[in-house]
Design goal:
mainly alpha, rod-shaped, 5 helices
Length: 132
């Protein structure tokens, strides 16, 4: 009953409280978008450092493009699109990082195989020389 009395004495109070709640929710959503944009930017930078522009160019370029589009959407106050693009940018950057790591691992495995083959050839040649 006291709540009803307060509303009766201040007819704008429910509207003011609603506006305050909406502003609070909007600020939280905006902060979430800023956090996502920061995480996406960091992922793109990590992909660049890992060598993704050379080894996973399509994924890296997609991440960078989506991040740029997310920033543009944010500046136009289209937070839903900005959030979606920022999340996609982070996913593309992480994929580029994984593909770069896989490429580096494959290259190392091929080099190891070549090294082992050369060593086996040398061992075989040495055994042939000793038998003569």
């Amino acid at each position: 009953m006291p709540h009803m009395m307060l509303a009766n004495h201040h007819p704008l109070l429910p509207r003011i409280l609603t506006a305050c709640c909406l502003l609070t929710l909007s600020a939280c959503a905006h902060q979430g978008l800023n956090n996502q944009l920061g995480a996406s930017q960091e992922a793109v930078e990590q992909a660049k450092t890992a060598g993704a522009p050379q080894t996973a160019a399509a994924q890296f370029d997609a991440a960078r493009d989506k991040l740029d589009r997310a920033k543009a959407a944010q500046s136009q106050n289209d937070e839903a699109i900005a959030m979606r693009l920022a999340q996609e940018a982070q996913a593309d950057a992480n994929l580029a990082i994984a593909m770069t790591g896989s490429t580096h691992a494959s290259t190392a495995a091929i080099e190891m195989l070549k090294s082992n083959q050369a060593l086996q050839h040398e061992i075989s040649r040495a055994q042939t020389t000793q038998q003569r």
